[in-house]
């Protein structure tokens, strides 16, 4: 295995991991309509469900990036991959606990009777043998709440588990490159998978939403274009969880460093807090508890040092606004196509995936290639970024005026 332990293999494994992560993110958006129909989730609740991933990721990424910087980065990453696998299985868990949605085939054509028996609206002043009872309403409401809570917790775990992917894994690649000029290419490949992945996720959701929630038991008269159709939303989560587990195996076998220390580009740790640049304060021989206490004490100082860096904070603000725009746009794009243009959930997912590949994935991979090919310096790259953002704003304003 040591002969195979090279940076190219690590990048290949991480491309698959980040691809699976992007697939999961895109797939969750693609099956959102099926989840709303199955568990009677409103658009507001579905948005909150998706934001749970960002909440978990935001809470964990700072701590993982800081405390894992001096640790065994591949093992930290592998732990995140394994935790992501359990999160995927947790997202599919409601189908095992509460089962798939079922309809009475003999009553599909009677819309009024269908609605009265499947839409839980209990009215004490209008008793009817075909109307659901209060106990049925409470039982179904409890099931929907339980499934929603399970998925929320799984989303938070998925966000926390993904923290090492775009922090420690990136640093590991950059630190173990012999030729530093290859860094933009490799990191560009990794970043492009955050765009290719959602496109794959939309494609996967377009396939699973064609299958009824209970495969092989679709009622007569109910098809993919019906408003009552619920796709097999749980299949994609099982696929992603299995792929995560497979990817964790090679990650656990990578060493802490791939290159000799004298060839590593790893930067010296930032001296902050009560431990200034004094070689006598070396803590490598201290116990793990003492090192943890020192790291916790220096953590606020390190954050404050970054907060005072104008270049870094400008990049953070730019990423915040960019993520705010793209996140809201991408989250409800399939649903918008489905409702605005009367397309099925499967077709809407396909169109959204095609847009994702064309707009983000290709541009990200192309940017990494250009940076490597022409050795573009940071100042020139920043000017190119500002120019492309300006063009994007102009095109957006023109499209809104049409």
TrEMBL record:
UniProt GO cellular component terms: basolateral plasma membrane
TM spans (from-to): 7-27, 47-69, 76-97, 148-173, 185-212, 232-254, 311-330, 350-371, 383-401
Top-level taxonomic group: Eukaryota
Keyword Membrane included in the entry's annotation: yes
Gene Ontology terms, MF aspect: sodium-independent organic anion transmembrane transporter activity
GO BP, sorted A to Z: sodium-independent organic anion transport
Entry-linked Gene3D superfamilies: MFS general substrate transporter like domains
Alphabetically ordered keywords of this record: Disulfide bond, Membrane, Transmembrane, Transmembrane helix
SUPFAM superfamilies in the record: MFS general substrate transporter (SSF103473)
CDD domains: MFS_SLCO_OATP
Pfam families: OATP
UniProt protein name: Solute carrier organic anion transporter family member
Source species of the chain: Plectus sambesii
